Amino acid sequence: MIAATAALVLALGGAAKPELNVDCDIGWQGCWRPTDWIPIEVRIQSPAKTPLEAVVSVSARQDELTTCTVRHRVVLTPDVMLAVPLVAKIDFSAPDLRLEIRDDKGRLLYESERALFDFSERRRQIESIPEYDLLIIASGRPSFGILDLGEHAASAPTAWRARGGDAAARQRAGYASQNLYHPSFSKGGIRVKEKTERGLPWDWPAYAAVDLLVLYDAAWTALRPEQCRAIADHVSRGGGLLLVLGGSVLPPDHALAKLLPFAVGEARERKIPPALAREWGLADAAAPSIPVWSIDGARQSAAEVMSFTPEGESAECVYYAAAPVGLGRAGVLAFDPARLRGVAPARAAHFWARVMRPVLSRLSIRAEEGSAGGDNQYAFNLGVRAGGDRTVMAFEYGIPELRPIGAGWVIVLLVGLAIVIGPVDYLLLKRFDRLPLTWLTLPAYLIVFSALAFWGIQALRAGRAQARAVTVLDMVAGRPEAWSCTHAGIYAPASDDWRPVDARRPQWWSSFSPREDDTIYSYRRSRPSRRLECIQEDGRTVPTYMPINIWSMQSVLLEERVAAAPPVALENLDIDGARLGATVANAGEHPIAWSEILVRRNEETHALKLGAFAPGERREVRGSLAPWRGIGTAREHPMARPGEPPAAGAALAALAASGNIDRSRAYERLLDEGWAVVYLLIEDPPLPFSLEGKEYDTRHVKLVRLAVRPE
After folding, report:
1. Whole-structure pTM value
2. Which pLDDT value is given to residue 422?
């Protein structure tokens, strides 16, 4: 009998669960930038004797209204430590992160809650990085004082932002403010965090907070293809990459070698020329002969080259080269500076600042006594993006169904209820001599009026479901990839699961809620009323459960890498002083409602309006450049500009919103280097998603930016 009972228990899944050995790392050595994606690495070791299928899930508050759960399916091999790289968004006010592991039958194998804020010690367990601080990740064998850079250097505004001039005079002349996408500050901190090659994330969103990734004499062959692809995507969408070559050979067919616009050859013993040593602040360093790797084709493709032609040789020796790669920057230091002796930390900081500056887009760096950066434990300022977020949300919520119900209807209902339960009820019951029945009639009246109120609101807010979206598509001429970011609001006339159809596209979904203030406070914690459940696998995160309550709107942020041809063809671009000419053609299948081309002239942004284009239309445009009026982020107006469709304002505001602002800063860097950027608006193209089993109306505004290098 006992044996039979035991067999039955095992058959019903009652076997003892294995004691898993689980560890979890959040962020970049305990650092993260709120509102950005954050890497989470879960390491699991199973003592089971057979492979075990399991689901790893992490849950945390993603914004003020939503708790998001991300799940990832794994197979645990006996006695083998499995590293599970996940990516999530965590709100600054999130109190904790919950980790669960369940088997394929749903049995709970492991659970834990990691506090993100320790109220007993009044400090955060992970450190937030302000918008004006730089985050540098060093991997490989970092040395030469790079890990201590935060003590001897500071972040600074980019070169074009730091220029002087009377801002008021610029605005009186009609120029846009140069603070469109950048925080106003003079000095910030630098965080340098170390990460092993094995621990680098596998997905590009995990690098969203990283300003510069330094691969210092890394074990190149130890990097997985997924990691290389993620790094390449990170650079393409506006990130910075610096390769420091040392004893490890970078194979020419390596994915990162193919990313560079120039080629790395063989190493030769050379000395650092005195001129370069003085420029780098290394004049006092002992300069023995050190291996210097050759860089071929740097002059043809690099924006910045540091080289020297040795005596008796015709070919120059390139010691450093950096160039744009998509919207980002990639640079190569052809030698290991650790081979230089007698360099003080302050001198090393001067060297790193000079080397890193060309590969940074969002902020710059300068050598001076700095700090590791500030961290306000109780507040995080969203900076410039807060205004853009609010304007985009105003566009999403701008439907009659979400407008406040007029006070007149409420007054009529309350007055009617008072009349009915007062004199009408009294006179009616007195007529039939049934006054004691008022304890029955009163609940009946309340039920009737509640039903009338419900159906009245239903009549005012009834209608079809709606999906309203603003998409920004960023492209660089000659690059095969483009970057799409969609802010979408889904209005539900009835409570239901409104998850999207899984189109197997590499999309990254997250929730997005409005904020009244520019600052998030850790002590303002309301209980999230919404849930979003996602599956994360194959380079994507898509919702599997997205409930929306009746008469409410769920706002989401959808980011993805797409392969798309530019919708506009720009030829014969000619900039002659204050005039610009080009041949423009609509190469897409949708009408272009509005377009203009931006250039930077005399350190100010100018624009030429191109107008509207029908599909296939081609024409010559030429005219005088005028000061660009820029974008606005005020909530009080619909962002319409004279002579342009009203939706253009919401799309332009999205450029300074979450998901887009870092790429907007990258475009500013390209403008400063002489590139031209075409802006064009497409109204009501197809949405990048569809809702499963639902009928709904759509309103979609798409803004495309295309960077073109003039000949």
Report:
1. 0.88
2. 79
